[in-house]
Amino acid sequence: MIISTLGMTDKEQDRSLQAAMKRRAAQVPPLANDFPDRVMERMKVESEGVKSEKYKLHFTRKVAAIFLAAIFLSGLAFATYLALSPRQTAEEPELSIANYQLSIQNETDTLKTDTAVTNQPVVFDNVPLEKMLPEMAAHYQTEVEFLNDGARQLRFHFVWKREEGLDRAIEKLNRFESLTIRREADRIIVE
């Protein structure tokens, strides 16, 4: 017979052990005069084992709680340090109207040293044709004429490399099924 003593006070455990001892003694005929004492001794040893297991579980939970509290407090301390530490920022001069006007004059009076044109491709992502083609035409100094008004709202993902030339760009655009573009002199015609 196993007696569960979890959740009991010490007095309740002692009463439970005594009751169990009496039940056990009533079931088994005594072999000697010290039988009840031996049973009582055995039950005390078993109950001490249960108490030690309960203590081990309680101790483990305490250690885990202390560990988690230490981690939480160190994180809180670090967050407080970051929040209260001064930021290293460049001090910007206070702008007044006079300083602002001077800064504008300085910007317009000087020529930028980097005047080279880069040949980076232009990426049109989900851009309607009526916005994309005029930008391309302006670069090649041509005009755009839309014969098909439905083509104006067509949206494209298109990578335009300026150095490839207008004819190559038109050739790439004509690969789309719903579009036909042709070039006549200084005009780009969308059909």
Walkthrough of the structure:
The strands form two sheets. A three-stranded mixed beta sheet has the order 2-5-4, covered by helices on one side. Strands 1-3 form a two-stranded antiparallel sheet. The chain is an alpha+beta fold. It has helices at 10-27, 35-84, 97-109, 129-139, 166-173; strands spanning 122-128, 143-146, 155-160, 181-184, 187-190. It has five helices and five strands; from the N terminus they run αααβαββαββ. The longest helix has 50 residues, at 35-84. The chain folds into two domains: 10-83; 122-190, Phage tail protein beta-alpha-beta fold. 52% of the residues lie in helices and 13% in strands. A hairpin with a 2-residue loop joins strand 4 (181-184) and strand 5.
